[in-house]
């Protein structure tokens, strides 16, 4: 006669305990990954808000200087133009930083408007050195600063 061993029904207790342990570890790892993702996202959002605030500040500063250009003369004009250029350069750097961090060609404000404003400042400086009135480049500078202000206001 053959002796038959009774086959256990289902999974052994040891195997079941191991499966429960593996599932618990996976749940904990998933929770840690979710926490890490949320922390990273909140830091990313905070960084973007900081960059947006800085761009807005630079635009407001450049716009506050522009009216003084038409009222000033000589050495003050050079100083105001150089300060306007510094703010525009700062906006360019923030655009590049944003693109590097967030990728995908993302920029805070249109770089073409920043470049056009810098070109207008260049024209103002050239005409100022010649001693000629620079109303046309000044109007172009105002137009580009208005464009930048509208783009900055549209940022979230």
Describe this structure in words.
With 156 residues, the protein is mostly helical. Helices cover 81% and strands 0% of the residues. It contains 4 helices and no strands. It has helices spanning 13-71, 75-102, 111-130, 135-154. Helix 1 (13-71) runs antiparallel to helix 4. The termini are far apart. The model has no long low-confidence stretch (mean pLDDT 84).
Order of helices and strands: HHHH
**Terminal-residue CA separation:** 83 Å
Largest sheet: none
Radius of gyration: 31 Å
Query: Can you tell me the residue ranges where pLDDT is under 50 for at least 5 consecutive residues?
Result: none
% residues in beta strands: under 5%
With helices defined by DSSP (H or I, 4 residues minimum), what is the helix count? Answer: 4
Structural class: mainly alpha
The geometry reads as rod-shaped
């Amino acid at each position: 006669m053959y002796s038959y061993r009774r086959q256990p029904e289902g999974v052994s207790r040891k195997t079941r305990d191991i499966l429960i342990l593996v599932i618990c570890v996976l749940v904990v790892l998933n929770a840690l990954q979710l926490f890490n993702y949320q922390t990273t996202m909140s830091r990313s959002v905070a960084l973007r808000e900081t960059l947006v605030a800085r761009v807005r500040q630079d635009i407001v500063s450049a716009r506050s200087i522009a009216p003084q250009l038409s009222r000033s003369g000589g050495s003050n004009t050079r100083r105001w133009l150089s300060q306007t250029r510094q703010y525009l350069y700062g906006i360019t750097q923030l655009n590049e930083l944003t693109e590097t961090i967030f990728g995908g060609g993302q920029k805070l404000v249109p770089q073409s408007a920043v470049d056009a404003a810098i070109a207008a400042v260049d024209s103002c400086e050239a005409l100022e050195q010649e001693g000629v009135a620079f109303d046309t480049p000044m109007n172009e500078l105002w137009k580009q600063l208005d464009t930048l202000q509208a783009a900055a206001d549209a940022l979230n």
